[in-house]
Amino acid sequence: MAEEQAGPAPEGPLLAADGVSRVFETAAGPVVALAEATLEVHRGELVVIKGRSGSGKTTLLNVLSGLDRPTSGRVVVDGVEVGTADEAALVALRQRSVGFVFQSFGLIPVLSAAENVEVPLRLLATPPAERDARVAELLERVGLAAHARQRPTELSGGQQQRVGIARALAADPPLLFADEPTGQLDSMTGRQIMDLLVELVHGSGVAAVVTTHDPLLMARADRVLELHDGRLGAGAPRRGRHAAEG
Asked: How far apart are CA 246 and CA 200, in angstroms?
């Protein structure tokens, strides 16, 4: 009888947080902004975090992305443990493994769309020819090839957010964080941004953690988790590979 061949080992999570808390010391005493949050995010998975203003969503994103360190617990992003890594390792993590999309777009006003997308590549000292090709590819991908030379003030809100997404993807990071990415957009433009995010995640294998109040984005997520007073509730898988595993 032939010996059975073992299949490939399942891929581990790209992001893993275990019992993560963040406490801020204030004059009035300690404030618990995040309390023992635990979650895993895999490649090709879109995870939405919902919660009221002040529930700790931005603190959670900051800790999960390496912008801030947890007070306790463990966060591992693309093999790097955030709580124990030195500053150089965290800078490298943020430059190569993590992309950010902000509600307020966060573009540099004096730079064109192409120059804004180019910023992360300049920080990585990417050769000029490779840099130009990557910028052109990304602007084409987000539907802004014809607007490469325009500055943010010459673009609509939806176009600015598309530039922000292109910039977040410039270094080809495996993990994307988006903080209320449709919060300043009208419903039609927000839907277009939502479609783009979903396509990036499910079509390109990027993992994304998104905070939002947008029910349409929640409906298309793989999982929706609720954050309440710094505590992250469990959420059932909604679709795709991870739903099948659940």
From this structure: 23
